[in-house]
Amino acid sequence: MVASEENVKEPVVATAEARQAFEASALALLEKFGATRSEKNPWTLTAVIDRSNLHAAVKTLRDELGLDMLLDIVGIDYLGFKDYTGPRFAVEYVFKSVYAPAKRLTLKVFVEEADLNIPTISDLYEIANWQEREVYDQFGVNFVGHPDLRRLLN
């Protein structure tokens, strides 16, 4: 199949202005859920959110800001980090827009070792099913409401 010139679209470029506009709108939206910007990662927009607001915030980011791709869910164990004080674990969710490359965002949820429960987002992004299972398997984080939370690797 040969694409006609009418069907070929100009690539969308992530400009600094588009990035700044997205960051402002994303942070304003996330403030409604009690999220705050993390200054520890200056290279990307990272917001820290309480787990109780995670599901609603992710749904809003997907539906209102067009973050239609969940790139990864990452577990972090801070046990060996020098001079770190705070909860032992964190879970990071990395999102982007397929059609607007300036839209990228990481959500971070801190989790105490005594209570490793976080709501699932597998109902919002299908790929979260496997990614949550991997974090569960490697770090013991329990994704409440997950349809099939069982070990993948170990």
Please tag this protein with its features.
154 residues; single chain; 3 helices; 5-stranded mixed sheet; two-stranded parallel sheet; alpha/beta
The radius of gyration computed from the alpha-carbon positions, rounded to a whole number of angstroms, is: 17 Å
Report how far apart the termini are.
45 Å
Helix content: 25-40%
What are the segments in which pLDDT stays under 50 over at least 5 consecutive residues? none
Condensed summary:
With 154 residues, this protein is of the alpha/beta class. The protein has three helices and seven strands, in the order H-E-E-H-E-E-E-E-H-E.
Structure description:
The chain is α/β, with parallel strands linked by helices and 154 residues long. Helix content is 28%, strand content 23%. It has three helices and seven strands, in the order H-E-E-H-E-E-E-E-H-E. It has helices at residues 16-31, 51-65, 128-139; strands spanning 36-37, 46-48, 69-77, 89-96, 104-111, 117-119, 142-144. The chain has a five-stranded mixed β-sheet with strand order 1-2-5-4-3. Helix 1 (16-31) crosses helix 2. The radius of gyration is 17 Å and the shape is globular. 24% of the residues are buried. The mean pLDDT is 92.
